[in-house]
Design goal:
This protein is an alpha/beta fold. The protein is built from nine helices and 14 strands. The strands form two sheets. Strands 1, 2, 3, 4, 5, 6, 7, 8, 9, 12, 13 and 14 form a twelve-stranded mixed β-sheet that branches. It has a two-stranded antiparallel ribbon with strand order 10-11. α1 packs parallel to α3. The radius of gyration is 18 Å and the shape is globular.
Amino acid sequence: MAREIIAGVVQMQALSFASAQNLERALGLAKEAHQQGAQLLVFPELFDSGYCVHPKDRELASSLGDLSAPTLQALQRFVEQSGVVVVGCGIEKEGIHLYDSAYILSPEGLVGKYRKIYLWGDEIDRFERGDSYPIFALDLGGVCVKVGLQICYEVGFPEGSRALALQGAEVVIFTAAFSRRRGYAWDLGSRARALENGVFVLASNRSGSEEHPYSHHHLEFAGRSRIINPMGDLLCEASGGLDEVLVTKLNLEEVARQREEIPYLRDLNLVHALKTQVS
């Protein structure tokens, strides 16, 4: 039996502070992906709150310790009704701390979460850093697949994706609000992370724009959401619209084949690399 799954990524415009409106838009796109057969679906970074919401970060945050927040409740209902496993990303609160966190919801509830480690710009004033690279095993129609999560800026830090691949990740998921100004880094980085680790990359990015609450500069998002195979080839990419859904089949056997074709993980020598750095 072939190890195949159907994966999807959502590209969408999210409005600052408009959680109810953003959630309605996200659910509409999720239903569209479900109709196309998606078993696993990824949303962009901070898709429900908007990205430039600094003054209301705490007010817009949700606890992942339960599913009582409106976004989590609505997504969980969709997951239970559709069977689609969803990867979301929002502002997480735990005690006095806030995090930029990606999370996975399955019909059984919260599978797990990842807290962003490499914070971009003034995110460092908004959020605490995460401190680990967890791996999650998902059952998608009887096929077990190991996935790891990364967020936005981290597409430029190969260490994170490599840590996930070394733990057995076959799919690395990027949820992002990557800017149009630096779209070249999104393009090259996402493909490089796939190739050097022999993994599929699901990269969901924001579209549209938001106004920074303090500088009043407009942040234009790059869009260009994409799904990439272990050779670094684009399987599909958003055409440039504000709201789009990409859905395609992934043959997970390609992971092992590509890792044999170019055995980066097999030949990796971390001891030598660290000695070279120290010297």
